[in-house]
Design goal:
single chain, 366 residues, alpha+beta, Rossmann fold, ten-stranded mixed β-sheet, 7 helices, 31% helix
């Protein structure tokens, strides 16, 4: 019994030594690996903190814009400045990396207390273009002519909109109540179609729907819908189709005095709309080329045309930015898996937007 006990004790001692040796090797390897991994992440962590800190300030100069910016900042006294955020979005991505002095890729977005990604002034996120962003609103797009479909690709790609063409207007009307945002591009409805569906469009808008109309609403002139009359002038020269911006709009990147030439001359006259705002008029008349108004609980934008020669840039881009700002609310998701991720760092910082605390999230990776 004594020899068996000795043998058992020797076996136990050897097993204990082997187990202890294994633990020492494991923890030594793990510690060294963690130190090595932390050392490799340190430059990325440093850049992530620097980007986050820069954005949480006003930037330089204090009232910077796309042409004057030296240091990018989007918060004034810890409050998100939506105008600066939009300007940040419009900057070239490679140029922003240089201003942040980083060699790494980045992406910035904001979330509310529910963890929902916020749409702030049309911006769901800013950074490397590879990141997929989508807007949390059900939308639809209707057009009647292939030559007048300037917003079709944008509506499909950005909002995943349901697309309707020509004689599919019946189908659009049957689904109208499920949409929050509707674009009618040169709908050119016949008189019978207009008379049949006018009340549907008015009910949609009065119940809070967001509506954007461009081009010719109906074949007959002077038709009234959503509080205004719609008209067309034919045979106008280029100078007669030139419009001047009269008033600014928070969602439209247009400045007073800017001019543009519309391909066609369509305009609206206010009848019963509330908060009717003239944004641009044709320069040889008082005809409203761009306008915005309220129709009960909904909001309407009108554009004479989307086919525009714009002296200050790409007019379609202006309308696209308007659309993203117009819908407000939240975005469905931020998907960074499409980016080529190796080493990833995340920083968070709390700021204020519209009197509510929001979280700014910054991803930086190699």
């Amino acid at each position: 019994m004594n020899s068996k006990a000795q043998a058992w004790f020797m076996d136990f001692a050897i097993a204990l030594l082997l187990f202890t040796f294994t633990l020492v090797i494991y923890f030594s390897y793990t510690t060294n690996f963690q130190k090595q991994e932390k050392g490799e992440l340190e430059p990325i962590i440093s850049d992530a903190k620097a980007i986050s800190s820069s954005l949480a300030l006003s930037g330089y100069p204090a009232n910077w814009d796309n042409t004057t910016v030296i240091r990018i900042g989007i918060a004034d006294e810890q409050k998100v400045n939506a105008t600066k955020l939009k300007s940040f979005k419009q900057l070239d991505y490679s140029a922003t990396r240089k201003k942040f002095a980083t060699v790494y890729d980045y992406f910035v977005f904001f979330v509310n207390d529910k963890g929902e990604v916020l749409n702030i002034n049309g911006v769901c996120g800013i950074g490397i273009p590879d990141v997929n962003v989508s807007y949390n609103i059900k939308s639809a797009y209707y057009y009647s002519d292939e030559d007048d479909s300037f917003l079709r690709a944008f509506m499909n790609d950005t909002f995943k909109a349901d697309i309707y063409f020509g004689n599919q207007i019946d189908k659009l009307i049957s689904n109208l109540s499920k949409y929050g945002f509707l674009v009618l591009e040169h709908p050119l409805m016949s008189t019978s179609t207009f008379n049949q569906y006018k009340s549907n469009f008015e009910n949609y808008t009065s119940n809070g729907g967001l509506l954007m109309i461009s081009g010719e609403l109906a074949a007959a002139q002077g038709k009234n819908m959503v509080g205004v009359d719609f008209y067309k002038k034919s045979g106008q020269s280029s100078s007669q189709r030139t419009a001047i911006v009269n008033n600014t709009d928070p969602y439209l990147a247009l400045a007073v005095g800017q001019s543009m030439v519309f391909d066609q001359y369509y305009y609206v006259e206010n009848q019963t709309a509330s908060e009717f705002k003239i944004i641009a008029t044709f320069n040889q008349s008082d005809d409203k080329a761009i306008a915005k108004w309220k129709y009960y609980n909904g909001t309407v934008y009108f554009f004479s045309d989307f086919d525009v020669y714009f002296f200050n840039g790409n007019f379609i881009n202006v309308v696209e930015d308007l659309s993203k700002s117009f819908v407000e609310g939240t975005c469905t998701s931020i998907n960074i898996t499409s980016a080529n991720l190796k080493k990833l760092v995340k920083t968070e910082r709390y700021l204020n937007y519209n009197s509510k605390v929001v979280k700014m999230v910054v991803y930086v990776w190699q």
